[in-house]
Amino acid sequence: MRVAGGGRPRREYFGKDEEPGEMRLTCPHCGERDLREFTYGGAALERPTGDWSAAWDDYIHLRDNPAGASREWWVHGAGCGAWLLVQRNTLTHDVMSVTEARA
Ligand SMILES: [Zn+2]
Question: At the N or C end, where does the chain have fewer CB atoms within 10 A?
Fold first, then answer.
């Protein structure tokens, strides 16, 4: 996403009292924590089925850069170590849900 004016995103993209780049996640085990305790684990994509196909190639090699709703894997590496499925908005930084990943 390109932001008008270049450089840092404008203040209005963030909530009241929120600094650009600041984000917190609420771990189901540990509670609300600073984002620096977590490591991004990639986009939570629908896994293709069946033998090798173009869908597998896309799944492994191509990534969207969504402006808006996004499903992502995060791991609470500096906390409980749980893998989490985070649904958030990449434009507003609103976090809709954080749930523990289940096999
Ligand atoms: Zn945790």
Answer: C
Tell how far the Cα of 39 is from the centroid of ligand 1, in angstroms.
12
Rg (CA), the chain: 16
Q: Which domains does the chain have, with CATH numbers?
A: 11-100 (3.30.2270.10)
For tokens 């993209």, what's the residue?
Answer: 13
Per-residue pLDDT of the chain (103 residues; tens, 9 = 90+): 444 444 444 444 444 555 545 789 999 999 999 999 999 998 998 899 999 999 999 888 888 888 999 999 999 999 999 999 999 998 988 999 999 998 6
Span from the CA of 28 to the centroid of ligand 1 (angstroms): 7
Q: How remote is the CA of residue 79 from the centroid of ligand 1, in Å?
A: 5
Please name the residue ranges forming H helices in the chain: 54-61
* Cα–Cα distance, 56 to 70 (Å, whole number): 20
Token pair 């894997």 is at which residue?
73
